Automatic annotation (TrEMBL):
Protein name as annotated: IkappaB kinase
Highest taxon above the source species: Eukaryota
Any one GO biological process: tumor necrosis factor-mediated signaling pathway
Gene Ontology cellular component terms for the protein in this record: IkappaB kinase complex; nucleus
SMART domains per record: S_TKc
EC code(s) of this entry: 2.7.11.10
């Protein structure tokens, strides 16, 4: 019987799915807007023993689901009101006495819907894969702890729900509670899901929880590569024949157009995860997809090797306790893999992605070693460029690599690497074309079988899509390179300005020193002392001229450097807005058309309507992509862009070297200028000292009282001072005789009047020192 459209406030909206023993329908409460997924058992009791067991199992497992199973990665049950709603719903059930299962509604559909999207034909993104595997691992481990084996894990039974924080949560549903699997029901009830079942469910009466490990491995391979691993198009008999022949190391089997089978130890290269994660998951898949159920999910661990070796040498035999021990690793190994962090690196030089595992101990020096080994760039030529998403603004060889890691950013490079003095090695960038495409290139008129055509179509779409990704990432890398370079140039303006200020300060210092010399010369000429300096003053003037010429040349060099810098700065800004870098995210390879052609081939395969020319359009898309790729990489404007960027970098490096040398010379000349100023100051003091010594020698027989008037006599002799304020000024007589006092002497006969001259020189010297010191501080 069909469910009614309405029961009270509840409205039946649509059927969500149909299982082997039940139907799931979406119901929404019109008042509360609550939506639930309700699963009803559609088994009709007919007295058959199997049917009765299925009904009993349904009731028991529903009870278990309601009261025992509580996990965030398993769809939870919900109580709804009023109770009359459920009662009315049971009236249309073929088995009214069996309870219904009311579950939370996962509005984003199931994993099959995600896998079937064209963009996911070669697998999902790394972030999605990580989240799905983690969720699936948690759910299965939880069920196994409860001694529950799901037995029917497949993409249709993994549903998606958006949490309150916007994150997508993957949940396991349809726990197989009503599935009493036997050989008679396999072909009838498991059509389309055969490859998710472990082989032991097909050939053995007994099985254990390892059947879920197999299903988990199959799903893991499919979400990574987009297809199931073991000849998914084959019949059951052929599938069993070839799968049971695989070795433990084999994780996939393919069949070509000539019915030749190949056993693979690795994932297909056409996927969207980092190479580092792929290598790790290949190891895990080998234990998940082990044919032998007793070994599936397990590995053999040898006890401490040193202990075993010492025992074997001592006793000439191996203790049974020291033999390899079988340990369950299906969950812990996956946990370890998913906990690892991989740094994504894009080489601008070779236009390819790399990834490396990092931890708390990894530093930039280790990254350099990795790049040298993997990218083939000499360590001295490696240039690391931080992506614009990085929070770190600068780094050194000691910087921790973990600081460069950006969570959930595996699709984009966290770090760009370039080769010094070279942007892109266009002569050696060859496309990586999938083998299924090269096979068709060699015989374009070949009629492809459906399974071969499907693989060809998938790989053709992937190839064009990947070339689009590589080219846009390359342009983003070059633009990031240009932005980082421009930022360095802008920040370097401070150094150029400091050089200009310093050279101007030195020029000012020279002018002050020259003024000091001129002032000294003028005062000495007035005092008639110039002859006392001899050749010293000429030497001072020569020194001044020499350092003045040198500093003038330095200033001219600084002006040229400034002009070159301004030119480089202008060009670096212009290159950022280059036409090629303006609109990077565009469809360079007509990807939309390729997707449409892929959809046509896919529909032909589903409708079994393929023909000998089904692959031609996609073949044409690949050919056009290769032509466009060659045009883009060899484009004259693109080459000029790279050359301009390289020229700017080289010229900026030359400017930095020139500024460094100029600053060194400025420091040297600053010290030289200070030195000659101090020498000049010392010479003035020496001149005064020498002159004082000569005066003291010629008059040493006189006492101080001979030079000074008797103040006491003047104050007590009864002499009355006569102060004529308006009288005429008379010439002061020399205390040493009757001559007039020479202007070169003080009134108390203290020697030559050079004190004021020294004071002037001291003031000028201090001013000069201050100016030069300010310039030096700017450099520091």
């Amino acid at each position: 019987l069909e469910d009614p459209a309405f029961i009270g406030d509840w409205e039946s909206e649509k059927r969500l799915g149909t299982g082997g023993f039940g139907v799931v329908t979406l119901w929404t409460n019109r008042k509360t807007k609550q939506s639930v997924a309700i699963k009803k058992c559609n088994i009709v009791k007919d007295g058959n023993e199997t049917t009765d067991k299925q009904c009993d199992r349904w009731s028991n497992e529903i009870e278990l689901m309601r009261h025992t199973v509580k996990h965030e990665n398993i769809v939870k049950t919900i109580d709804v009101e009023p109770e009359s709603f459920i009662k009315e719903l049971l009236k249309t059930s073929p088995t009214p006495n069996l309870p219904v299962l009311v579950m939370e509604y996962c509005e984003l559909g199931d994993l099959r819907r995600i896998i079937n999207k064209s963009k996911n034909c070669c697998g999902l993104s790394e972030n999605e894969i990580r989240n799905i595997l983690k969720s699936l691992r948690n759910a299965i481990s939880y069920l196994h702890d409860l001694k529950i084996t799901h037995r029917d894990i497949k993409p249709e039974n993994i549903v998606l729900k958006q949490s309150d924080n916007g994150q997508i949560v993957y949940k396991l549903t349809d726990l197989g509670y009503a599935k009493a699997l036997d050989k008679k029901s396999l072909n009838a009830s498991l059509v389309g899901t055969l490859e998710y079942l472990a082989p032991d469910l097909l050939y053995s009466e007994r099985y254990n929880c390892s059947v879920d490990y197999w299903s988990m491995g199959i799903i893991a391979f499919e979400i990574i590569c987009g297809v199931r691993p073991f000849i998914p198009h084959a019949t059951l008999a052929k599938w069993m024949l070839h799968v049971q022949q695989k070795k433990s190391s084999h994780i996939s089997i393919t069949e070509n157009n000539n019915e030749n089978y190949t056993y693979h130890n690795n994932l297909f290269p056409e996927h969207h995860i980092t190479k580092s994660l792929a290598r790790e998951l290949e190891i895990w898949l080998r234990i998940a997809l082990e044919w032998n159920p007793k070994q599936r999910g397990y590995i053999f661990e040898v006890p401490d090797a040193s202990i075993v070796e010492s025992k074997s040498k001592a006793f000439k035999f191996v203790d049974p306790k020291d033999a390899p021990i079988q340990k369950l690793k299906i969950f812990t190994m996956l946990d370890s893999i998913l906990a690892k962090k991989f740094l994504t690196i894009f080489s601008i030089f070779s236009c390819e992605f790399f990834s490396m595992e990092i931890n708390e101990e990894t530093n930039v020096s280790n990254i350099m070693d990795f790049i040298e080994q993997e990218c083939g760039i000499n360590r001295e030529s490696i240039q690391l460029i931080l992506s614009l998403e990085q929070k770190v603004t600068s780094f050194s060889t000691e910087t921790k690599a973990i600081d460069l890691f950006i969570p959930e950013s595996y699709e984009k490079p966290m770090l760009f690497v370039a080769k010094s003095n070279c942007i892109l090695n266009t002569s050696d960038i060859k496309p990586i074309i999938p083998s299924s495409i090269t096979d068709v290139f060699q015989n374009i008129k070949i009629k492809l079988k459906p399974h071969t055509l499907k693989q060809f179509a998938i790989n053709a779409y992937y190839f064009v899509k990947n070339e689009q990704r590589l080219y846009t990432t390359l342009l983003n890398g070059i633009k990031t390179y240009a932005l980082v370079l421009n930022d360095e140039i802008v920040k370097y303006k401070t150094n150029v300005s400091q050089l200009s200020k310093l050279t101007n300060g030195l020029c000012g210092g020279v002018e002050i020193y020259r003024s000091t010399l001129n002032h000294t010369k003028e005062r000495m000429e007035k005092k008639d002392l110039i002859s006392l300096t001899g050749s010293t003053f000429i030497l001072w003037e020569e020194q001044c001229t020499k350092i003045s010429n040198t500093i003038n040349k330095l200033q001219e060099a600084a002006e040229k450097i400034t002009k070159r810098y301004e030119s480089v700065l202008k060009r670096s800004r212009e290159i950022i807005s280059h036409n090629i870098l303006k609109q990077i995210e565009q469809d360079y390879y007509n990807l939309k058309s390729v997707e449409n052609r892929y959809e046509i081939v896919r529909a032909q395969i589903l409708e079994r309507n393929t023909h000998e020319k089904s692959h031609i359009d996609l073949m044409q898309s690949v050919y056009e992509c290769l032509k466009k790729r060659d045009i883009l990489l060899r484009d004259l404007g693109f080459k000029e862009l790279q050359q301009h960027l390289l020229n700017i970098k080289i010229e900026m490096q030359e400017i930095q070297k020139a500024v460094f040398k100029a600053l060194q010379h400025s420091e040297k000349y600053q010290k030289e200028l200070m030195k000659i100023n101090i020498e000049h100051h010392e010479n003035i003091w020496n001149l005064m000292q020498n002159f004082n010594d000569s005066q003291f020698t010629s008059h040493q027989h006189r006492r101080d009282q001979d030079y000074l008037p008797d103040i006491d006599t003047m104050l007590h002799s009864g002499f009355t001072a006569n102060f004529d304020l308006n009288g005429s000024v008379t010439t002061l007589k020399n205390a040493l005789g009757e001559q007039e006092v020479n202007k070169n002497y003080l009134c108390f006969g203290e020697g030559p009047d050079v004190t004021s001259l020294i004071a002037d020189n001291e003031a000028l010297l201090m001013t000069t020192e201050s100016l030069i010191r300010d310039g030096f501080e700017l450099i520091q």
